[in-house]
């Protein structure tokens, strides 16, 4: 029997590849995205339109989303939750607005915790998995990323706390990519090939990740092969966190 997986931010660069990878492995994919079902024609899986930024302020919104998700399981037990959706509000602290800081926490941290709680009965009953998509910015960051890095560092901490709280029935892990070649990232470097090459070059592997690689790691973390892994952070970073950047 197929199993169901929830993937938030399913229309994003990594999210769409998560949907594709899990669908190809026979999972019943239930995607959640604020853009709605029409944003990606032909995308595999069932898409629910919802903005997870609203969940922390409206308990009815969370209950409604939970009901919609459960109506799409089609008899396939819910065995995995991939908290992938995120916002990246950038800027120095003195220029970040209060709404930007609050949104960063609501989307990147509070919503994943609320969704984990909402689907706790099914995930516990089915001995399932939660995978939080973190970031290398939780470990090492750069100017302008205060809101994003703080929210991701807290998400990594939540992973460890939930692993302790929910064991032995639910595995909870973080998958933390470095720069990943999504359409959005590549569009930002359009006409700036030298800058993209520099970004690739600072990684010891001399390249950035592909969204497909991140999706495959998520598949592993939800598989039976990873049942003894919980509370861990997998840094898919191309070695960037192991490298010192001394001034020349």
Relevant terms:
7 strands, alpha/beta, 248 residues, 7-stranded parallel sheet, 8 helices
Write a brief caption for the model:
The protein is of the alpha/beta class.
Tell me about this structure.
The protein has about 250 residues and is an alpha/beta fold. Helices cover about 40% and strands about 15% of the residues. The chain contains eight helices and seven strands; from the N terminus they run βαββαβααβαβαααβ. It has helices at about 15-25, 60-70, 100-120, 120-125, 145-165, 185-190, 195-200, 210-220, and strands at about 5-10, 30-35, 45-50, 80-85, 130-135, 170-175, 235. Strands 3-2-1-4-5-6-7 form a seven-stranded parallel β-sheet, sandwiched between helices. β1, α1 and β2 (about 30-35) form a beta-alpha-beta unit. α1 (about 15-25) packs across α8 (about 210-220). Residues about 40 have low confidence and may be disordered.
Quaternary form? single chain
Low-confidence stretches: 38-42
Q: What is the average of the pLDDT values?
A: 94
Order of helices and strands: EHEEHEHHEHEHHHE
Total number of helices: 8
What distance lies between the first and last C-alpha atoms, to the nearest angstrom?
A: 58 Å
Largest sheet: 7 strands, parallel
Structural class: alpha/beta
Q: Report the strand count.
A: 7
Using only C-alpha atoms, the radius of gyration works out to 18 Å
Q: What does the overall shape look like? A: globular
Widest β-sheet, arrangement of strands: 3-2-1-4-5-6-7
Strand content: 5-15%
Helix % is: 25-40%
